[in-house]
Amino acid sequence: MPVKSSNIVPKNGNSRYIVRCMTHEDLPQLMEIRRELKVHDVESCIDSWLTVDPQGINVVESEAGELVGACCFIRNSDDLYFGGLYCVRPKYQGTGLGIHVWNACMDHVGPRNAALNAVPGKTELYRDKSGFPIVETEFKCQKNFTMESVDPDNLSNIIPQGVIIESVQDYHLPAMFDYDFSVVGYDRQFALALNCQEENSRTFVAMKNGDCVGFGTIKLTCLGAGRVGPLYADDPAVAEALLKRLIMSMPHVTGFVMNTVSNNVSARKLLKKLGVPLKEELTRMYRKEKLSADTKKIFALYELNLAPF
Description:
The chain has eight helices and 16 strands. The chain is an alpha+beta fold. One of its GO terms (molecular function) is acyltransferase activity, transferring groups other than amino-acyl groups.
């Protein structure tokens, strides 16, 4: 992979660092950083999106080969990149290394549109100094999680007549791809195909008369929880039945994570049934223009750091 920058000397230090594109071999070190930061990331999901865009994640590496930070702007479509994973190991924070990996990612984006989710207190920084002037006003991205077990018996499995829910198979994929496009507005076939093949994950699809009317995935996070996402459905009852099936398919986990959009009231009701609290709200920001998606069908976001919906 090409080196993006070299011979970086952090503040108050003499050691040199490089910024370069991340490789699949770097994943264990990245996940170590994310665990240090108590973030519920999924290694297989990051691995899949790195396959989609091999130059989309940049890392800071010490002379000794230690990864000390990372950031990504992943190509989701020809004119859409999505940013996240911005992190520096706690012992290196405040050294100025973060800006170098950020700049490498922005070089990857070039003149194209990009989006990110700003944590509380950082909206003004991204808007006024980092080139993300457009603030989403229709919704917030909500982080919901608990380290307690959730009980799928609190959810209904009653679905509309004619709908069937099945574990995803290859023959479901074309209908699932069409449905995903109808929700988010651009083609994600490669990413979704990889999503359905990831280790420690389960994907179910809701079908009616040969058409997909919803689908969902649950994955094991680096902190041992089950994380649902994406979860899309035409009908809240279908979303609830999918969610019940997903939780039942991964019983031996420590905790539950499901990230939502604030304007999907039905998603909030499902989390209330499960007793999963809202932990944090993030502000969606854009570089050039807002994205349009059918958020009433988005019950759980795909990934907070790698994809907009």
